[in-house]
Design brief:
With 314 residues, the chain is of the alpha/beta class. The chain has nine helices and twelve strands. Among the domains are: 77 residues, Ubiquitin-like (UB roll) (Roll), CATH 3.10.20.310; 133 residues, Cell division protein FtsQ/DivIB (Rossmann fold), CATH 3.40.50.
Length: 314
């Protein structure tokens, strides 16, 4: 027979699931039209307020800086430490060993060396070629110059001198000292040149006098060179009243050229020399100032007349 437990457990049925209650949101109050308007205005003003604030800060800062007392800046002395590129290259052996000067026979060598400013032993890269050229070209006798650096240590300075065209005698009046200076073909004075030394080198240099002689020298010399027989005898030329020339020959004869038709007069004199050796004769003055006419005045005779008996009784 089966055994039945005296204490039987009752069967409890599970509770039915609890229904979830939906949360009902609290009703919200609707904003009025005026509140919506002011909220929109506030949002639109925010960027402008930021810009206005930044501008105000900048203006106030600028005014504060202006109000501060001026401070004089202290100069900063930059010292060369000797370790630049030029010094490094010099330490590696790039130093000037020779300075060659080409084409400056009449320029003062001491002045030229001073203008170059570079000595043997100087760093090869420690100077500007353009600066050397500019200093050399400032010398009076120098027309142009080129400067070349040949590494490791040669500097070549080639000089083209201003050619001496004539010697100009100036001064000597109103207490001024008489001077002789060289002029170039354009009539410019060549400073720093010895006119006497130039005359010794070039005996054919013409001596000119007259205030405007340098400006008219080229025309006269060109006209004389067209008649070699006359040019070889002319030693000086005097400018008269800014209008014409007087020529002084080597035998001290005076040739008066006209104010107009100068070349024709010179050609006429050359023809007379060819036909009758006029310039070889003892004449004192040859006057060509009148067109188509020639006036020749010989030197006065050396014979002195003896007084007559009639003159002794008078």
């Amino acid at each position: 027979m089966s055994r039945v437990s005296a204490t039987a457990r009752p069967v409890i049925a599970p509770a039915p699931p609890r229904a979830r209650t939906k949360k009902v949101a609290a009703p919200q109050d609707r904003l009025s039209t005026s509140k919506l308007y002011f909220r929109r205005v506030k949002r639109s003003l925010k960027p402008g307020l930021w810009v206005l604030g930044v501008a105000s800060v900048l203006i106030v800062g600028s005014e504060l800086v202006r109000s501060l007392p001026a401070i004089t800046p202290t100069p900063v002395v930059v010292r060369h430490n000797g370790f630049g590129l030029a010094e490094l290259a010099a330490d590696a052996g790039l130093r000037i060993s020779k300075v060659e000067i080409v084409g400056a026979p009449t320029t003062d060598q001491a002045a030229l060396q001073a203008a170059i400013g570079v000595q043997p032993g100087s760093p090869s890269l420690g100077f500007s070629l353009g600066a050397v050229q500019a200093r050399v070209e400032q010398l009076g006798p120098v027309q142009s110059a080129t400067v070349e650096r040949v590494l490791p240590g040669i500097l070549i300075v080639s000089v083209t001198e201003r050619g001496a065209y004539a010697i100009w005698q100036t001064g000597g009046g109103n207490g001024t000292a008489l001077r002789f200076v060289l002029i170039d073909k354009a009539g410019n004075v060549i400073a720093g040149q010895d006119a006497a030394a130039a005359k010794r080198r070039e005996p054919s240099l013409l001596l000119l006098t007259g205030a405007d002689a340098p400006q008219n020298a080229q025309t006269l010399v060109t006209e004389l060179q067209a008649v070699p027989a006359l040019a070889a005898r002319v030693t000086a030329a005097e400018r008269v009243d800014g209008l014409r020339w007087n020529l002084i020959l080597k035998d001290q004869a005076l040739v008066k050229l006209p104010a107009t038709g100068e070349q024709d007069a010179i050609n006429q004199l050359g023809a007379l020399q060819t036909s009758m050796q006029l310039l070889d004769r003892p004449v004192e003055v040859i006057d060509l100032r009148l067109a188509g006419k020639l006036v020749v005045r010989p030197y006065p005779s050396a014979t002195v007349s003896t007084p007559s008996a009639k003159d002794d009784h008078t």
